[in-house]
């Protein structure tokens, strides 16, 4: 079927000699419309009934002469600024998929265009294979969000059992799950909720080294680290993901501050780069050692339900960027924080590749070769 361009449901502001298209926040496209032809084209595109080849005739019926080349260039330009969809692109999805994932598909409209549709983004998520380390407050929330997005397979790893205290913030579990392994309880919840759309593989195991992550993550597209033990777990996952060649996301709550970041091996600076940089700073400024947010010994869990859900949301959005390619990851080598006790103040700080990082040096050598 030939593609039919359709204008996204965005704000269109018409003025005597111009039209303003307002799509994403803080983005506006100004189009000349001295003769009314732009408005006429936008009206036709809103309908989404014509192919690019049919649009010149439709414009002619409205009194405007446009060549095929001019129309193709106009549609291309509108697609480049992100205001067009491919009409009917959801039609090849199963009706049950369209019904269940309607809101997800409309979210993907923000990033879709003539070349890559919202259905394409959904299919990418449906093919995704994720290794999720941890089924606690953040991990169970990420699990729920990934299943809601229609992720294809989730390998869920945790060594804990459900306790009564978990029920304040881990909503994949109920009182009837107390004493059960979290991973099997979470799998059972997923079966009820997703009706088999997402395969959850429960793995009751403690992560003690990079070898375990390499073994469990073989063939995965993404690793999400939702555990904070052992103390060097982020470095373990970082090393394993370099060997696996897949990105990973880490997050947590440090006292009253939420944080999350990600690493794309061979593309972004890695977690070892951050560690080396901080060690270098600490050597010259010893007072920084006590401010190293990733090394605190505070193990008190202050994550209420809303906090765990908020953090899980940030992490899952970043996971979606990696898995579907909607846009570039926002947290790659970038430390995002939300300070809960300071008016929800947010900050983001990127770190650079460290010249002594053996992992980044290894991938750089492979790229050159």
Automatic annotation (TrEMBL):
Q: Which SUPFAM superfamilies match?
A: Activating enzymes of the ubiquitin-like proteins
Chain ranges of the THIF-type NAD/FAD binding fold domain? 116-358
PANTHER family annotated for this entry?
A: ADENYLYLTRANSFERASE AND SULFURTRANSFERASE MOCS3, UBIQUITIN-ACTIVATING ENZYME E1
Name of the molecule in the record: THIF-type NAD/FAD binding fold domain-containing protein
Tell me the organism: Actinoplanes ianthinogenes
